[in-house]
Write a structure and sequence with these properties.
alpha/beta; Rossmann fold; Isoleucyl-tRNA Synthetase, Domain 1; 3 domains; four-stranded parallel beta sheet; 15 strands
């Protein structure tokens, strides 16, 4: 039985059990949700725990499991259906599994795991968003690569994704930077040092302001000039922005990430007045100590600050204006905001304000938080100059990879290109290999470690599969044939079972906004494949056996490349 074009054993089990229990009126969806994968393959490939059925059927769970086992016909999908205590365990029929899964991969190729459930609907993904005139550091890595992976995953599921880089190009930090530039900087120094010089000036401002607080007033005055169209202030702001964008682009080029919109905060300046007027008209705006707020006491949150005492806007004001603009422009079914967990309250507040404004689509606004990135346990701080530049990290990873290639495989063709794929892949996979909400302590050693469960390990496994196929001269197409029952060794079946899971893992990654589900899956697939490779020789005299094993190798290569691609990582064919 196929669901969304894929073999779905949970669907099959729910259908079979539902037919036996038809008189109970139990929904098939409810049964589907109960089915799980046992921790030990000796207990079966899938299992239905019968605890929740106990109340409904007024019988002990183990009795229910025993009765169901005697009433379900396993063919052709299962080799056996057995009761073990309160669990109804299902053992897959090997030949049916192998034939169905491998034929599907051979037919679909790189599209295996994709779906059309999105129906071309728009999803807006707001990610990366570094601040102009500040360095693009490792703290921005998570937002950038998580957002890019979600873009690719949702696109793979049939959605039309709009990637937005909401650049931090507005705010009092520009007043601080201009103040520092006017006092201690020069055009020559900035032209020479670019963003590193801007960072130096920014750090110096905060060091000096600790001794001379009047500098803060000077900075506010310069930002006021920017907001009010002062020519000198605007010219400096544009210059700093231009330097930053060139710097950012070099990083995006290394990561091979692009955006559909680079509209930063300043883009929404002329759209804010309408938001303020709407909040007033809907009687949501209140005065509090000279500032304008939306009171959120009834929802257990502090007030959402809309205007400061001096009438200037805040992040929330601009975010609301941006959401209204994006809904009107893109008619999204979902808008994702990939930012740090520390901003969770901010998003809850302004999401609630949009809801109070009467927009039912507020429910489609989703904050996708990730953990804090710290440096040896200390918080990254641009003000104190305590950052690791992302460009430096990526270039170091590439250089280290090239050194390894020169040592171990100096004759490798296009080794600079492969070094970039592997070096960048190591950094990206490192950021996507753990649950996104976990805090990460950055260390050069870990970021550049190619041993163990890493991106380079997956890329090497992919290259190994490509090498086997090259030696055999196999280039599978939709017309390839193989004998399924030749893949009856436990090591081969473990690989096929892993391949079966890929479409389900992609869907879970989208539903949970969690690319690490795919990362962990790929590691397990690579482990199972390398186990197969060591236990089962592929190039053998038995032509049918060799052909079946080659098809399995090709399927693994295909799914590894697709999975890595969804994470924004390249899959080199030689390493």
């Amino acid at each position: 039985m196929q669901k969304n074009g894929y073999l779905d054993y949970k669907e099959i089990i729910a259908e079979k059990v539902g037919t036996v229990l038809v008189e109970t009126g139990l929904e098939k969806e409810a049964l589907y949700a109960l089915i799980e994968y046992p921790p030990d393959e000796k207990l079966g490939d899938l299992a239905l725990p019968c605890f929740q059925l106990s109340k409904l059927l007024k019988k002990a769970p183990n009795v229910i499991a025993q009765e169901l086992a005697g009433q379900i016909d396993p063919t052709p999908y299962f080799a056996a259906v057995k009761a073990t205590g309160p669990y109804l365990n299902f053992f897959l029929a090997p030949e049916f599994l192998v034939k169905t899964v491998l034929e599907k991969i051979v037919t679909d190729g790189a599209n295996y795991g994709s779906r059309t459930i999105g129906g071309g609907q728009n999803i807006v993904i707001d990610f990366s968003a570094p601040n102009i005139a500040k360095p693009f550091h490792v703290g921005h890595l998570c937002s950038t690569v998580i957002g890019n992976a979600l873009y690719k995953i949702f696109e793979f599921l049939g959605y039309n994704c709009i990637g937005i880089n909401h650049l931090g190009d507005w705010g009092t930090q520009f007043g601080k930077l201009i103040t520092a530039y006017k006092k201690w900087g020069s055009a020559e120094a900035v032209e020479k040092g670019l963003i590193k010089e801007l960072m130096h000036l920014y750090v110096k401002f905060h060091t000096e302001a600790e001794q001379d607080p009047s500098l803060e007033d000077e900075a506010r005055e310069w930002f006021w000039k920017i907001e009010n169209g002062d020519e000198e202030a605007l010219a400096l702001w544009r210059w700093f922005k231009e330097i930053s964008l060139e710097e950012f682009q070099r990083v995006y080029d290394l990561l091979e990430i692009s955006f559909d919109s680079m509209a930063g905060e300043s883009f929404y300046n002329d759209k804010i007045d309408a938001v303020i007027e709407e909040l007033k008209a809907k009687q949501l705006l209140e005065e509090s100590e000279g500032a304008a707020i939306v009171n959120l006491d009834d929802y257990g949150m502090p007030p959402c600050l809309i205007l400061k005492k001096d009438g200037s806007t805040l992040y929330a004001t601009r975010d609301i204006a941006a959401a209204l603009y994006r809904k009107k422009t893109y008619q999204f079914v979902k808008a994702l905001y990939v930012t740090g967990a520390a901003q969770s309250l901010h998003f809850k507040q302004w999401f609630k304000v949009v809801e109070l404004m009467g927009y039912e689509w507020a429910k489609d606004l989703v904050h996708v938080p990730f953990g804090l990135v710290s440096l040896k346990g200390e918080k990254l701080s641009t003000r104190k100059g305590r950052v690791v530049l992302l460009e430096d990290l990526l270039k170091t990873a590439i250089e280290k990879t090239l050194a390894i290639i020169n040592e171990k495989n100096p004759g490798l063709l296009q080794k600079e290109e492969v070094a970039q794929m592997v070096g960048v892949g190591a950094v990206v996979f490192g950021a996507l290999s753990v649950n996104r909400i976990k805090d990460v302590t950055f260390s050069w050693e870990e970021a550049l470690n190619f041993e163990g469960e890493t991106g380079p390990y997956l890329q090497y496994t992919h290259a190994r599969a490509c090498s086997i196929l090259r030696k055999a001269g196999l280039t599978p197409g939709a017309d390839i044939t193989f004998v399924p029952d030749k893949l009856n060794e436990p090591a081969a079946l473990r690989v096929v079972k892993m391949l079966y899971l890929f479409p389900e893992k992609v869907l879970s990654a989208a539903n949970e906004y969690e690319p690490s589900i795919i990362s962990r899956y790929l590691i397990e697939l690579a482990h199972s494949f390398n186990g197969f490779y060591h236990e089962c020789q592929v190039l053998v005299d038995d032509r049918d056996l060799q052909q079946a094993r080659l098809v399995l190798v090709w399927a693994v290569k295909t799914v590894l490349a697709t999975g890595l691609g969804l994470l924004g990582i390249k899959a080199p064919e030689q390493m």
